[in-house]
Amino acid sequence: MDTADIAQAERAGHPARSVAFVTLGCAKNEVDTAAMERRALAAGYRLEDDPALADAIVVNTCSFIQSATEESIEAVLDAAGLPSVAEGRARLIVAGCMPARYGDELAAELPEAAAFVPCSREDDIAAVLDGALGVERAGAAPEPGAGEARPAGAFGYVKISDGCDRWCSYCAIPLIRGRYRSFSYEQVRADVARLVEAGAGEVDLIAQDTGRWGADFDEPLDLAWLVDALAREFPDTWLRVLYLQPEGVTDELLAVMARHPNVCPYLDIPLQHVSERVLRAMNRRGSRAAFEALVGRVRAALPDVTLRTTLIAGFPGETDEEFDELLSFVEEGLFDYVGVFAYSREEGTAAFDLPGQVDDDERAERAQRLRDAADAASSPLIAARVGREAFVLVEGAEEDGQLYGRAQCQAPEVDGVTYLDAGEPGRIVRARITDTLLYEMEGEVL
Ligand code: SF4
């Protein structure tokens, strides 16, 4: 513990204890962890990277599908098995989606945990840590200020809302995260500003359903307004919108994207399926023809747009013909990137009891066939970028010194990277794409 930590702890009114956060799941959970870290820092706790050395370990869990729940349980049990926890020197706290979804059931299953913090109570993390570690404090812990944050990497995520009202029949998120709630412009702006000040060159706007932002305000606003306002306010920062349901792709949003060079011409539109019957059973709208028209409308407005989607294979009742329809849609190559998930049967969701559940092996096989088709369809689209110029945000260097970054057509963590022959981490460079290998690109800095 250095003197700055001690001084901060003393200002906060107690000796500095350390806390390690372990995060499972998606980018939304990473944002939630960052917010809890800021609250812990403001309350005088010190962040410890190694859980084995921390006084408290917070495992921020994911449980939107069964495999994620299993992974989260494993992480909790790993933490519970650390000598510091097993011998009672450190406290284990389970946060996030798993306590939100399983509530009291979990307390009986995991007696090793000192506390459970569902998503809706994460703002109370300082009080939970105080309680678990026996820290006495006069009054409530201080709210985090601008200084309480880890340094940002080349990019960061900002959540613009939480919850979801769509009730897709396969999805447990509305059960876990509750009703849709947009965050205010002031909050979103402050979160973006914090990342920019900490060095991020790109900020990705995320939510369960980004396209609904602002619709629940007393005086409704919309995503096009938000992106326009942020693009003007942060003209040197790339902005990217992820998780945009098809209904959220408005002409106004496309116009804003076309107007601002710092808004990545990139859309991540989860379609999940293209068969009308399957979509209705999923409690979703659309059809193959409607989605093809949507892609046409987007490409007309943004000729250089990069498109990503996600699809589900093996939904209950999916016939061979319906699967073939989905497969042939993927083979059309309308999307540069396609994420594929095998359907996961989730308790508490409407699809759990649907007839015609497809068996596990068949679901996995269908998912793999879609992935292979997506790779085959995407390869030529990515290879066609050779010879083009692109701006690339330099992110860092591999162990052997090889620099890499991401072009605007590559979203973080999912679309591969661009290897570069020059550049400085955190800077945006202009490069010519010289080669591609499936999803990875190589570029020569101009
Ligand atoms: S839009 Fe559908 S899949 Fe996405 S979080 Fe909401 S209910 Fe789940």
Automatic annotation (TrEMBL):
The keyword S-adenosyl-L-methionine applies. It is found in: Cytoplasm. GO terms for cellular component: ribosome. Its main location: cytoplasm. Binds 2 [4Fe-4S] clusters. One cluster is coordinated with 3 cysteines and an exchangeable S-adenosyl-L-methionine. Residues 17-134 form the MTTase N-terminal domain. It holds the Pfam family TRAM_2. [4Fe-4S] cluster 1 binds at C26, C62, C97. Keywords: 4Fe-4S, Cytoplasm, Iron, Iron-sulfur, Metal-binding, Ribonucleoprotein, Ribosomal protein, S-adenosyl-L-methionine, Transferase. Its cofactor is [4Fe-4S] cluster. The keyword 4Fe-4S applies. Its EC number is 2.8.4.4. It catalyses: L-aspartate(89)-[ribosomal protein uS12]-hydrogen + (sulfur carrier)-SH + AH2 + 2 S-adenosyl-L-methionine = 3-methylsulfanyl-L-aspartate(89)-[ribosomal protein uS12]-hydrogen + (sulfur carrier)-H + 5'-deoxyadenosine + L-methionine + A + S-adenosyl-L-homocysteine + 2 H(+). It comes from the Bacteria. Residues 383-446 form the TRAM domain. InterPro entries: Elp3/MiaA/NifB-like_rSAM (IPR006638), Methylthiotransferase (IPR005839), Methylthiotransferase_CS (IPR020612), Methylthiotransferase_N (IPR013848), Methylthiotransferase_N_sf (IPR038135), NA-bd_OB-fold (IPR012340), Ribosomal_uS12_MeSTrfase_RimO (IPR005840), rSAM (IPR007197). Catalyzes the methylthiolation of an aspartic acid residue of ribosomal protein uS12. PANTHER family: RIBOSOMAL PROTEIN S12 METHYLTHIOTRANSFERASE RIMO, RIBOSOMAL PROTEIN US12 METHYLTHIOTRANSFERASE RIMO. This is Ribosomal protein uS12 methylthiotransferase RimO. The gene is rimO.
